[in-house]
Amino acid sequence: MSGGRRPGPRGSGGGRGKRPPGGKGKRAAGGRGRGPSGPRSDDERGRGSAGRGSRAGGRDGDGRRDGGATDGGGTGRGARGRAPDRGAGAPPGGRGAASRPGAPDLPRDVWRDHAPSGRRPVVGLVRRRGRLLVAEPLFGRGELVVVERGGGVREGRIGVFVPPRRGGRRNAGHRLVREVGRPDVARDVLEALLLDRGLPRRVARSVAAEAEGVAQAPPAVDVARRDLRDTPTFTIDPASARDFDDAISAERVADDVVRIHVHVADVSAFVRPGGALDGDARWRGTSVYVPGTVEPMLPERLSNGACSLVPGEDRLAVSVAFEVDGAGAVRRASVERTLIRSDARLEYDQVDEIFAGTERATDPWATPLALARQAAAALQRRRDAGRLALEVESQEPRFVLDEEGHVTGVAVERSSESHRLIEHLMVAANAEVARLLERAGAPALHRVHEAPDPGRVGRLAAQLRVLGLPAPTWSATDGQPPEGEAPAAVAELSRLVADHVRRHGRGAAGYAPLVLRALQQARYLPDARGHAGLALEHYCHFTSPIRRYPDLVDHRAVLALVGGGEAAFAGSRSQLEELATWCSATEREAMDVERHADRIAAAFLLERELLASGGVARAGARLAGEVTGVASAGAFVRFGDDGAHEGLLPLRELGDDWWELDELGVRLVGSRSGATVAIGDPIDVRIERLEPARGRVTLALARRR
């Protein structure tokens, strides 16, 4: 739905008035504005490749969906690289061609990798143009294409259309190969997004057949499993979780010492190197989660079935055992193959209620949960005492879809004690596995987050100072931290931001991304170079092999090391480097798709809220918002309950002035008036235009507060 006048097109110029001497800004009044009317890019947002998570990350420190706060920097995409060598059991594809004109290269694209050259389909909306039916690309910019009539083509529907065959009849149109649905149904639009990004939305027959076979009878592994089925065990996950990678057991071994078992699904027992399952999982690299659905790395027969640690079922696991003392020191780590049975599937909110005393824990998992809480608290105290780990608070939206595919609500998930419990235990398990691998020199994939550049840390301090936040003394003298002190300096700045947000109750959505952009981008490498965001010397991803291929690689590596019945990585050093590059790229692509999907879901929810409260008339209502970013296009404003919505306030709406982006990228400054619009400013807006299928919200200024 829409209201008010239509915003200018992408890339249209600024105002036509005379530019002030030396001015480089864009005039707001009299012109059509500048830039897109919808979601900003990561560079415009001031976000890195993460932007989600809790203190220094989420479930396992810097995982994508449940964390990533330490994976900042860059544009969120990075170089694609080529697919790992086929001889190393690589995925199909890797032809190196860009997937769409003007779009970044995708690391994986089923259309590019399997469709004939020049025959990439168009995912578009069917419209009538005179006597012709055309498909208008639903996402991004692109030319309209004429479509063939018949074959189920219906006006007003989203479809996937393939170009005419070469050598076919003249003037043949694009042919419908799949009707996706309606543009007013969120689930259909999200499905179209996944197809547009080249995700298969299907499982190859050979892969499905292998998955079915191993689910019924996993390949034999020549090693005895330790039977832990009588050990009380539980999982803690979001209410919406579909697959369960990890479970926890805990027991007291001394007054202040707790032994923790982190049980992780033994995916390596089902997915054998060189098979169809392994090749497909490599090509995918990671699962992609969007509201209401998932593009899984593994077929659902495994991801939601045989591998998932559901309660009351015997499951194959790889268990990492370690002890945590009262000072938070971790010792006596070991890894072995096990057989477990989860006693309970707990949810974050439920565990928080138990910790608050409003719900009762029950046997057999009550005591292990209390001991796990004790161990996590000790690990938290040790992290706080070190003062080198980042503190970045961010929010995770969880959208709710009804049976018809409409978005009906959203819950903004914030870090709580239950989240931190799981995060600390998963981080400890990952770190101990990485330590074992590094000490043995085993070929593996390490999760690397290198120390930030001092110049970028100095820029962050300057940005925060301009925005009125406290800054350390070194920022006012040398302008950047002392040599070798950049990690400690950015950690200090993250704490200053967190303290400011807690005191003032605003700014988290705008300030935290500035911290992230001061960081290097986390990635996978064959070498252990440390993890600056977590202040750890060794780190890898191990605890989510159902949804991340690097975790599966490291399962095989550590099991080979401890005599667990697996073989070490058989490829060359260059092949391992290529695999690391590939997995880093698929992760970034998945994050980009997930962010786009969240914007679409939020726009559909906003449309529903407007219609429920008065429709178009309601669209002109004043909405309290907060500036979360600025760019040459205008200001980005978050508004609504829990800040669930965000839109672009174009320059033309800011008043009759020439607006320039300041050199630090945190304020828009009026050249004549000196007025500013800065990150963190409260601002009242109204909705000017809403395009749910594109995830775009264009705002107009209501009144500055």
Automatic annotation (TrEMBL):
* Basic and acidic residues: compositionally biased ranges: 57-68, 106-116
Classify the source by domain of life. Bacteria
The S1 motif domain is annotated at: 620-702
SUPFAM superfamilies found in the cross-reference section: Nucleic acid-binding proteins (SSF50249)
Coiled coil residues, start to end: none
The record's Pfam families line, in alphabetical order, gives:
RNB (PF00773), S1 (PF00575)
PROSITE patterns linked to this entry: S1 (PS50126)
Chain spans, region Disordered? 1-118
Q: Where is the composition biased (Gly residues)?
A: 1-15, 69-78
Q: Tell me which InterPro entries the record gives.
A: NA-bd_OB-fold, RNase_II/R, RNR_Ribonuclease, S1_domain
Composition bias type Basic residues, residue spans: 16-29
Descriptive protein name:
RNB domain-containing ribonuclease
Q: What is the lineage of its organism?
A: Bacteria, Bacillati, Actinomycetota, Thermoleophilia, Solirubrobacterales
